Amino acid sequence: MAEEHKLHIVMFPWLAFGHMIPFLELSKLIAQKGHTVSFVSTPRNIDRLIPKLPPSLEPLIEMVKLPLPRISELPEKAESTMDIQTSDIQYLKKAFDGLQPELIRVLETRSPDWIIYDFAPYWLPPLAAQLGISCAFLSLVNAWFIAFLAPSAQDMLAGSGQRLKPEDFTVPPPWIPFSSKVAYRLHEINRIFGLASEDIASGVSDMYRTGKVLMGSDAIFIRHSVEFEPDWLNLLEELHQRPVIPIGFMPPLGEDSRDDENNSWLPISEWLGSHSKGSVVYVSLGSEVTLRQDELNELALGLELSGLPFFWVLREQSGLNDDSVKPPDGFVERTRGSGVVWTSWAPQIKILAHESVGGFLTHCGWSSIIEGLAFGRPLIMLPFMGDQGLNARVMVDKNVGIEVRRDESNGSFTRSCVADLQRWVMVEDGGRSCRDKAKEMKAIFGDEDSHKRHISNFIEYLGNQRLK
Ligand code: UDP
């Protein structure tokens, strides 16, 4: 019998931890099957990721450090979205685009079977084709986001002249024949369009980037499961006329014990352990959202007003930014004992897994939703940008959480709404069915067998469909 071909895969994620971490998780799963990976990022990000790599897989996963070209607007040490304000992400994208020559050298010297990347390197698919390397877009945002926006990106690329206005996205577009509830709110799509027009430094909007990688890639891999909302996967395949392979939810199972930067888990687990089962609200807005001072005040005072214990991850931008916003005066002192404001990277998965956590106030990043539901935690949803709003709407429809109301004209929200919804989700009778439904979701989002099946199919696909 012919010996099985050992694959070599290059992974090239966007410089956000919400992207790099799932790319690394997938790298580990590929390596566990005996294949090899070159994981490419910048030096500081690689140093931050290395602790997440189990020693047994180190020989199979090469961590390749490419220095980030310097852009004067970026703080010296900034190499990820976590290090900067949301409005400066455009400069990070510009620097990222400057990695192209170094990446080509990596591809020429490694000659991999596949390169897998996400939305940012719009310039990569034609280069991969020239080098004869199979290339795939790994989407860490959901199928509904790509299905919702991507055909319009294609229109723009094709120069149809059809300029879509923000209002066009507040209803499901005609190419979505189901799920009438999945649409943007006006304030949110205004924000997305606003950010896109600020994308001046990088010269290329996210929509354009996403359209290019979708149209140029040999396949689309997506963090989604055939057991959950499969219609969207079929729709994507139809819309883009190329294989769409779900890699499963990659639920957070058996976290590596070395994954504890700064030995933070011990004090956190002691604090969580001092609270009764299901009583604590875990609050985190992921790795990219930066709050304005007024938003931070309403959120803080809402947490206080609810009277529920909370663990709030409110990271400063790695100390690189002096003008970070701060909780309102006296808030930390008043809530001491009942609440924690954690100002560095938190071991989110371990926290969500802890039995004292009863609910998750989240910005609705796709990874956070998966992680919350894998542990059956109901969601209090406060989406900000990108796919987050659509994620929230799908989850409301599934009755696994409730969304904080925002003013349609300016997107503001109030402390009383934050407090009321927390109490509803966590303790009130009205929220019981939502709590039950979130628990039921564990069977889908945390299903280890489904996860293994998806990964086996995915790796089989990589082996069968490579160009070389
Ligand atoms: N995360 C974490 N600790 C933090 C903040 C975030 O471990 O203090 C992880 C979280 O578990 C998730 C990812 O970072 O895996 C955030 O991804 P998500 O898609 O939810 O949001 P994004 O950061 O992309 O907006």
TrEMBL record:
Pfam families: UDPGT. InterPro entries: UDP-glycosyltransf_plant, UDP_glucos_trans, UDP_glycos_trans_CS. The keyword Membrane does not apply. GO terms for molecular function: UDP-glucosyltransferase activity. Keywords: Glycosyltransferase, Transferase. It comes from the Eukaryota. The keyword Transferase applies. Its EC number is 2.4.1.-. CDD domains: GT1_Gtf-like. Signal peptide: none annotated. Belongs to the UDP-glycosyltransferase family. This is Glycosyltransferase. It comes from Escallonia rubra.
